[in-house]
Amino acid sequence: MDPISAVSEELGQIDGQITDIFRSLSNGFQKLEKIKDVNRQSRQLEELTGKMRDCKRLIKDFDREVKDMESRNDPNTNRMLNEKKQSMIKELNSYVALKKQYAANLENNKRVDLFDGPGEELNEENVLLASAMSNQQLMDHGNQMMDETDQAIDRGKKIVQETIDVGTETAAALKAQTEQMSRIVNELDSIHFSIKKASQLVKEIGRQVATDKCIMAMLVLIVIGVIAIIIVKLVNPNNKDIRDIPGLAPPAQSRRLLWNPN
């Protein structure tokens, strides 16, 4: 029998679920290495991320259960459970690091160069246009192009600044939403754990109520039996088959008068 299941059946179930998830993560990353399509890699990585999130929730449940049983276990058992928890956390962190590595590689594969230079056809057109202009026209055209370039640079700087501001606001909003989601996940884990503990308490209370009902039924039967014996004894006091009840006085016998006035 598994040593963790010997300590607690609940801990054994959680440990089994975490082991299944680790096995699924190992197979999933091996499958991810063989996938060449970027979109399929992204979907596979999202699926593995969801499994790691479930594993993290189960490890939290395992830790809560260990802390709840810590006062009832001996030191050796507590040390064994804590070492098992640390082993789970270490293995999960290794998969998280592997996921980050694959995500970075996937991002590099999707990156596109947005700063391509002008083509050869445009250069040839500029050469032909310049050969047909006089020096003054070339100077005027050059000044005009410089002015347009300055305006384009100013517009680019403005767009870059606006993009930086939007990015900063977006990053702050994402950080706040991430913290809020983390708090919500922790609260949901706590609620889930409380519901499980409440279910166990309800089962224990139900067993106690059933035991109390059985005891009450036996007491009622005993009381009914004693009352029946008392009634039979009172109705038929000469019945020798029924022994006298301790503490109950025998019925008064009828007297005979020795002297009859008649």
TrEMBL record:
CDD domains: SNARE_SNAP25N_23N_29N_SEC9N. SMART domains: t_SNARE. Its main location: membrane. The keyword Transmembrane applies. It comes from the Eukaryota. The keyword Transmembrane applies. It is found in: Membrane. The chain crosses the membrane at residues 215-235. It is a single-pass type IV membrane protein. Residues 38-72 form a coiled coil. InterPro entries: NPSN/SNAP25-like_N_SNARE, Sec20_C, T_SNARE_dom. Keywords: Coiled coil, Membrane, Protein transport, Transmembrane, Transmembrane helix, Transport. Residues 143-205 form the T-SNARE coiled-coil homology domain. This is t-SNARE coiled-coil homology domain-containing protein.
